[in-house]
Each structure stands twice: as structure tokens, then as C-alpha cells.
Amino acid sequence: MKRLFSFSVALLVLALPASAWAQADSTPSQEAPPRVRDRDRDRDRDRDRDRDQDRDRDRDRDRDRKSCSCGLREVSERSSTRRSGFWLSGGLGAGSESFDANDGLGWSDDKGGGMAFLKLGGTVSQSFLVGIEGNVWSAQYYQAGYDRTLASLMVVGQWYPAPASGFWLRGGLGWAQDYLQLYGGSQANINSRRNGTAYAVGLGYDIPVARKVSLTPLLDIQAQRYRDHDERIVSLGLGVTFH
């Protein structure tokens, strides 16, 4: 009986470690599936986040591209419609004057002088402007004994053959005045004013320097007709134009 009891105790002692080892070996197999599922879930979440970030970047890039193209369209529209409403131009220059006394001797030698102009008006279309122009040319000839000032006030039309370009042609018609001051030496000076008709043609180019503002180099040819003589002025100038 004692031998049977000892044999049972020995079997029990041997069985307990084996059971513990089997339980330990079975525990990882029971815990492994949750860890695998968590890892897969994290990987899917990372993949979704990367896909969302890529989609956001593509959307931002498309928005930037659209805003850039709209900006280009706005610049193009401004450049093609920069002439509108009221306009004003003024500037300075230099020109040569000659006259014909209608005595059969022809035109006199050219004499240089300074020139100033101011013109303003309204925009009829992108190709055509109308306005009023005042123009003054003046020179002093002390050695010759006189000073001369030629002035004009004209209605002008300014035509742009290509509306998108700054090149223009101009014509005008109006009133002219010849102011002549003769030095009388010991006697009083003699002042003479004559009124006549002014004709003008010219060309120029508006060079944009800011929105609605241009620098305008120009060439102008003006003829003035009086009762007893004719005047001719050829001038180069530079003006500032506000459209």
C-alpha cells in the first residue's frame, strides 16, 4: 500500500510541470492573433493617412494652378482694356521753326526752340481717343532782335491701328497764334500778335510703366497759316500719359 501511494505521488509531481509547460506554450498561440490584428490595423491606418495626404497635396496643387491661370487672364484683360474713360497727357520737347513770308523766297532756315504740350479728352473705343490739345513753341533770338512764340489750341483725334499696341497716329485742327516781340533798341519794343489756323499730324508710342500710366515719346508736325505768312514746326517730345 505504501508503495502504491509513493508511485501516485511521483506521477503527480511529474504531471504538474508538464501541465505548466503546456499552458505556457499554449498562451502565445492564444495572444498572437490580437497582436497581428493590431499590426494590420495600424498599417491600414497609416496607408489611409498617406493616401489622404497625397489627395490633399493634389488638391492644393490644382488650386494653385487654377489661381495662377486666373491671374494671367486678369493681366491680359487689363492690358487689353487699359484705355478707358478720361485721359490726360503732358510733356516737354524741342522743335525747329521755319516760316514762309509768301514773297516767293520760300521757307526760312530752321530755328530751334523749346516745346510744351498738354492734352486731355475721353476714350471713344480701344482704338480711338478724342480731346483738346494745347501746344506752345518758343524761342529767343537776341542777336536777330526778336523773340517768337507760336501757340495753338486744337481738337485732336488719336487712333491706335492695333488696339493691343501702344502705337498711335494723331491729327488735329484748331486755332493758332503768332506772338512776335521786336527789340527796338533805344525805342520801345514792338509786340505783334496774329491769329490763324493750326493743322497738326503726329505719331507716338505709349510705353506702360504702371497701371493706367505710360511714357509717351512722340513726333509732331504742325503747320500754322496766317494772313501774311505761314509757320511750320517739327518737334520731338516725351510725355506722361494717364489713361
Question: Biggest sheet: strands, sense, closure?
Answer: 8 strands, antiparallel, barrel
Q: Quick one: how many beta strands?
A: 9
Topology as a string of helices (H) and strands (E): HEEEEEEEEE
Shape: rod-shaped
State the main characteristics:
9 strands, 243 residues, alpha+beta, 1 helix, 8-stranded antiparallel barrel, 33% helix, rod-shaped
Structure description:
Helix content is 33%, strand content 49%. The protein is built from one helix and nine strands. An eight-stranded antiparallel β-barrel has the order 1-2-3-4-5-6-8-9. The longest helix is centred in the N-terminal third of the chain and has 79 residues, at 2-80. The protein starts with a helix and ends with a strand. Mean pLDDT is 80; it is low at 71-81.
Summarize it:
By secondary structure, this protein is of the alpha+beta class. It has 1 helix and 9 strands.
